Amino acid sequence: MPSPAITAVAIFFIGMGALALSAPQRLARLVGLDASPRRGINEIRAVYGGFGVAMGSLLVYTADDPALRAGICLTLALALFGMAAGRLISAIVERGLHPLMLALALMELTLGALLLGA
Fold first, then answer.
1. Radius of gyration of the chain (CA)
2. Gap between the Cα atoms of 58 and 102, Å rounded
3. Cβ atoms of 49 and 21 closer than 8 Å
4. pLDDT at 42
5. Long-range contacts of 84-87, Cβ-Cβ distance < 8 Å, separation of 24 or more
6. pTM score above 0.85
7. In 3D, which of 107, 79, 99 has the Cα closest to residue 12?
8. 49 within 8 A of 24, measured Cβ to Cβ
């Protein structure tokens, strides 16, 4: 059985993915994107939706394969840290960070740290 930390991160990824797959325009608006009817929506469903569900499912899979758990957790932690780093770079280049983006960066850092500790 995965740890509570792994379960929490899995729920986050699967929840984000499910939202992006079912309501891509809603998620796009939340982060300030204007998703065009085909290309933008496709991108939201692919990157936020399919990827999110796949990563959450991978974490759930660690319950049955503890031998892979450390590598999977490290990989996803680094992906989350990479997203937070991208937000930091954007804040420097754009000379500021929207409060929502700051909250997302802090969430990504927290989730990544949870995975490293799992």
1. 15
2. 27
3. yes
4. 92
5. 84/108, 84/109, 84/112
6. yes
7. 107
8. yes
CA distances from 80 to 11, 22, 95 (A): 15, 23, 22
pLDDT at 37: 77
The yes-or-no verdict on residue 33 having pLDDT over 90 is no
**Which residues, including other chains, have CB under 8 Å from residue 91's CB and lie 6 or more apart?**
97, 101
What is the enclosing helix (H) or strand (E) of 32? none
Instruction: State the Cα–Cα distance between residues 66 and 9, nearest whole angstrom.
Output: 16
- CA dist 51 and 33 (Å) reads 18
Q: What is the DSSP code (8-state) at residue 23?
A: -
pLDDT value of residue 1: 64
Backbone angles phi, psi at 34, to 5 degrees: -110, 95
pLDDT at 111 over 90: yes
Q: Are 83 and 111 in contact (CB under 8 A)?
A: no
pLDDT in tens, 74-105: 999 999 999 999 999 999 999 998 999 999 99
